[in-house]
Amino acid sequence: MTGVIRLGVAGLGRAFMLMLPTFARDPRIRLVAAADPRPPARARFTQEFGGHAYESVAEMCADPAIDAVYVATPHEMHVEHVRLAVAHGRHVLVEKPMALTVADCAAMVAAADAAGVHLLVGHSHSFDLPYLRTRALIAGGAFGRVRMITALNYTDFLYRPRRPEELDTAQGGGAVANQAAHQVDVVRLFANAPARSVRAAAGVWDPARPIEGAYTAFLDFEGGVAASLTYSGYGRFDTDELCGWIGEMGQERDPAAYGEARRRLRGVKSGAEEAALRDRRGYGEANVSVPKPPAAHNHFGLIVVSCERADLRPLPTGVMIFGEEERRFDPLPAPAIPRAEVIDELAAAILDGTPPLHSGTWGLATVEICQAMLASAREGREMPLVHQKEKASCR
Hints:
It is a single chain. The chain has helices at 14-25, 39-49, 57-61, 78-87, 102-115, 129-139, 174-191, 260-265, 271-279, 340-352, 360-379, and strands at residues 5-10, 29-35, 52-54, 68-71, 91-94, 119-121, 146-154, 195-203, 214-221, 226-232, 302-307, 311-315, 318-322, 327-331, 383-384. Strand 13 (318-322) and strand 14 form a beta hairpin. It is of the alpha/beta class. Helix 5 (102-115) packs antiparallel against helix 11 (360-379) and helix 7 packs across helix 11 (360-379). The two termini are 17 Å apart.
């Protein structure tokens, strides 16, 4: 294989829109094929990138021009589409959450291993450079061991336009299934140890959107590391206020736009109408443009990593280090290519054979924790975790 990965995209929806600036600007990626049921999306893809656009993922996976497939279809379709891709010998980057059950995750890992291809799970915010820099600072040893991690994020997640299944927990909807994977991945990155148990509570506070819009959880890791995770998607307080009004995608935010997500939903009279509103934000629609490169890095709210001799706070522009006698800022350059860290890991795996951090086994462990959070919230008890120590697959 050359130094370029020929990529096929399964699903030209919102996730693809967020990864598009990365794919379009990174010289290691060439978009050669796509699959989507929407004719406008297929037409725009062929116009912008050439190649072929297919109505079905099965047709696309059979295209001999493809080296790897980015699976960005709805969550419940991931297991089917990963199996299709690996059956044709394609490496896979699958969006989070990897799947809706641990059993489906295990089947995906087994299928990739049997086919001898790499399976990566992302984008997740644990790819973000501020968090990778923080992890490297911890690994340097100057601050001692990690003892506690605090993760806090407040957004308007629940009031962004949704398809009906995104408001159904059983179909992978809600804040836990969609957002907890980011926080879980980030705290696992810093803890660098298997999680042993989780205790969680979830909030369902809006009768008009009767699904988990908030959660809080306590994760216990081997070696004495503890992590607390809190998330609210109810669109009131916004933790971007604590990050210099830099948004999750590294973009500048306007605090005067308070309540914008709720206002957009006013007048929406049905689930079908809301789904159509969501689709209008997707690739292929006339009023949707590719996002400009952000001024700062992606992030996921307030994170504080408490080590034995310092507290570390990753920010969209670098890492703040609070030592025992001084504090200092470790700056990061603005991203030339947003989310380039995803391609770093994908290219290292496919082109160099380097085992990925965000492997299928990693993704399975994260899904187990998220599912255990939901179970803990339902049953009101601590849930043991049993899939956190498995040896990482070489794929």
